[in-house]
């Protein structure tokens, strides 16, 4: 049972810890057992400060003026679940599996920047996992974990090639390798976000820098290649990128690295949210305009996450499964129009009307994929 105690946390009064990223929209239907979260630009009002082991459902409403996010963190800032890109006036649902008793943290992140407004969330009860008599949930988790690990292997290889080109001053080769190496990261970005400060080290945009924050990762090198030219610390930034990618590899290859099936569904949605938030506007790869490579990678990753869950969706909601398949096909066909050689046209050549059509296709797919988490959780 949830404790019916309401706690409001103001931004100025919270000890701030590390962070994560951004996402999509739509309204959800709440049940009486759901925990409500009401976010504003400087508060995070939660209807309960405790829950029980197993699935916990949060209904997150944004009453502020900024787009916000909501996260559930385990010890070490391991993201157990997140819902992103909650626009003003919108409500999003998050179903998160918390299999073990202990103290977790809830975090609202107004403006999708900074460390968030946090509070402790106490979970009691016996350790438990979802009922899985058919083995489908375990098979989904194993399959998706293999996918994550395979993408990280490719990320390590292509990132090293990219860094080598940067360090020898081969700017044109580095530019060609930039979107190719990022592809493998963009397919699995929600998992990278699970590991505390890792995602901003790898993928922080200049526009999201906070005062005094060190800027590292892909986008710092993007600016060096397309705008400023190599800087005195460019090679050091490149070396750090390799180190940070290796850290990601260490995390996903650890023996205790597990993925809950409801988190897989959340990843599928989160990857589409990534497009809706920063990529559709051209903000993500603002210097190189290679956003369409990222579009395709996010779609690929979302499709892989759904594929891992496909037997479960087919069994529990075959109509939804068919709708998702069709929406993926529609979006893939739309993106195919912009292919050029082994890649895509630059995004600054895509006009506003074309961007709106891409956005409509993404929203149509997102509306279907947003239902998967509830199906997997048995809601």
TrEMBL record:
Claim: DNA repair is one of the keywords in the record: no
Boundaries of every EfeO-type cupredoxin-like domain copy: 14-112
Keywords: Signal
Chain ranges of the Imelysin-like domain: 141-371
DNA-binding as UniProt keyword: no
One GO cellular component term: periplasmic space
Pfam families: Cupredoxin_1, Peptidase_M75
PROSITE patterns named in the record: PROKAR_LIPOPROTEIN
Matching InterPro entries: Cupredoxin, EfeM/EfeO_iron_uptake, EfeO_Cupredoxin, Imelysin-like, Imelysin-like_EfeO/Algp7, Imelysin_sf, Iron_uptake_EfeM/EfeO
Signal sequence, renumbered to the chain: 1-22
Entry's localization field: Periplasm
Family classification: Belongs to the EfeM/EfeO family.
Protein name, UniProt field: Iron uptake system component EfeO
Species for this entry: Rhodococcus jostii (strain RHA1)
């Amino acid at each position: 049972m949830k404790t019916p105690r309401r706690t409001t946390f103001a931004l100025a009064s919270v000890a701030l810890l590390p962070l994560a990223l951004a996402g999509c929209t739509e309204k959800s239907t709440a049940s009486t057992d759901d925990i409500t979260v009401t976010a504003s630009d400087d508060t995070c009002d939660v209807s309960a400060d405790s829950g029980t082991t197993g699935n916990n459902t949060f209904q997150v409403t944004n009453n502020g003026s900024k787009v916000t996010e909501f996260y559930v963190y385990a010890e070490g800032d391991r993201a157990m679940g997140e819902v992103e890109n909650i626009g003003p006036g919108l409500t999003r649902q998050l179903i998160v599996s918390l299999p073990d008793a202990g103290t977790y943290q809830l975090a609202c992140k107004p403006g999708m920047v900074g460390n968030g407004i946090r509070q402790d969330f106490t979970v009691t009860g016996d350790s438990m996992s979802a009922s899985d008599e058919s083995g489908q949930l375990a098979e989904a988790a194993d399959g998706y974990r293999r996918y994550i690990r395979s993408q990280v292997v490719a990320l390590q290889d292509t990132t090293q090639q990219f860094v080598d080109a940067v360090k020898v001053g081969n700017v044109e080769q580095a530019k060609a390798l930039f979107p190719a190496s990022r592809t493998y990261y963009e397919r699995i970005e929600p998992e990278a976000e699970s590991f505390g400060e890792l995602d901003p080290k790898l993928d922080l945009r200049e526009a999201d820098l906070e005062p005094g924050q060190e800027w590292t990762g892909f986008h710092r090198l993007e600016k060096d290649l397309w705008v400023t030219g190599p800087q005195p610390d460019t090679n050091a930034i490149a070396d750090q990128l390799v180190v940070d990618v290796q850290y990601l590899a260490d995390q996903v290859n650890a023996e205790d690295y597990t993925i809950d099936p409801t988190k897989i569904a959340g990843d599928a949605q989160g990857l589409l949210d990534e497009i809706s938030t920063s990529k559709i506007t051209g903000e993500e790869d603002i210097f190189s305009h290679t956003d369409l490579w990222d579009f395709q990678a996010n779609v690929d990753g979302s499709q892989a996450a759904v594929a891992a869950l496909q037997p479960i969706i087919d069994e529990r909601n075959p109509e939804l499964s068919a709708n998702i398949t069709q929406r993926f096909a529609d979006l893939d066909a739309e993106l195919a129009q912009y292919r050029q050689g082994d890649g895509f046209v630059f995004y600054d050549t895509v006009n506003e009307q074309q961007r709106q059509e891409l956005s409509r296709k993404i929203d149509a797919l997102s509306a279907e994929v947003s239902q998967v988490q509830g199906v997997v959780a048995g809601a």
